[in-house]
């Protein structure tokens, strides 16, 4: 009997051992599958993160290019404004040079001496109208001198 019971006992012991081994093997496989799934998840996250990072870098480079382009357009507009100002200043300079040539001429000096300083050449006579005399120089007259009307003419004639 002991053989039989020993046999049953050892068999149960072996079965229990096999069950434990099987359980450990299944647990090991389950953990291994979890580790593989986790590794795949990490790889997917890394790929996603890499893709997002690449898109962000591309956006940053594009934004920098757009900003530089806008800056170039602003500089072109500024240059055009300066060129227009330069042309204007050059035209003013030419006007001033022409005026300087005119001012240096003897005719201009004579005209200024006569009009502003009242100077005359030797032997000339200067006529000055009295103040408030009603005299208006011919150059400053805007309209013709009014002609006397017929009523005024009749009143002036003796009867």
Give the number of DSSP strands. 0
Terminal CA distance reads 189 Å
Compressed to H and E, one letter per element, the order equals: HHH
Radius of gyration: 57 Å
Q: Which parts are unreliable, with pLDDT below 50 for 5 consecutive residues or more?
A: none
User: Helicity, in percent?
Assistant: over 70%
Strand-residue proportion: under 5%
Rounded mean pLDDT is 82
Class by alpha and beta content: mainly alpha
**Sheet having the most strands:** none
Tally of helical segments: 3
Q: Overall 3D geometry?
A: rod-shaped
What does this structure look like?
By secondary structure, this protein is an all-alpha fold. The chain has a domain at 8-86. Helix content is 75%, strand content 0%. The longest helix is centred in the middle third of the chain and has 103 residues, at 2-104. The chain is rod-shaped. The termini are far apart.
């Amino acid at each position: 009997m002991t053989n039989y019971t020993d046999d049953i006992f050892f068999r149960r012991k072996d079965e229990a051992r096999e069950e434990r081994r099987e359980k450990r093997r299944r647990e090991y496989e389950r953990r291994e599958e979890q580790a593989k799934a986790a590794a795949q998840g990490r790889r997917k996250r890394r790929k996603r993160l890499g893709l997002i990072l690449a898109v962000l870098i591309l956006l940053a480079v594009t934004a920098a290019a757009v900003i530089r382009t806008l800056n170039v357009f602003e500089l072109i507009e500024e240059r055009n404004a300066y060129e227009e100002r330069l042309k204007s200043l050059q035209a003013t300079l030419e006007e001033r040079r022409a005026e300087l040539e005119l001012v240096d001429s003897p005719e201009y000096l004579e005209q200024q001496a006569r009009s502003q300083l009242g100077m005359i050449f030797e032997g000339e006579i200067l006529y000055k109208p009295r103040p408030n005399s009603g005299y208006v120089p011919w150059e400053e007259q805007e309209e013709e001198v009014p002609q006397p009307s017929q009523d005024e003419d009749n009143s002036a004639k003796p009867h």
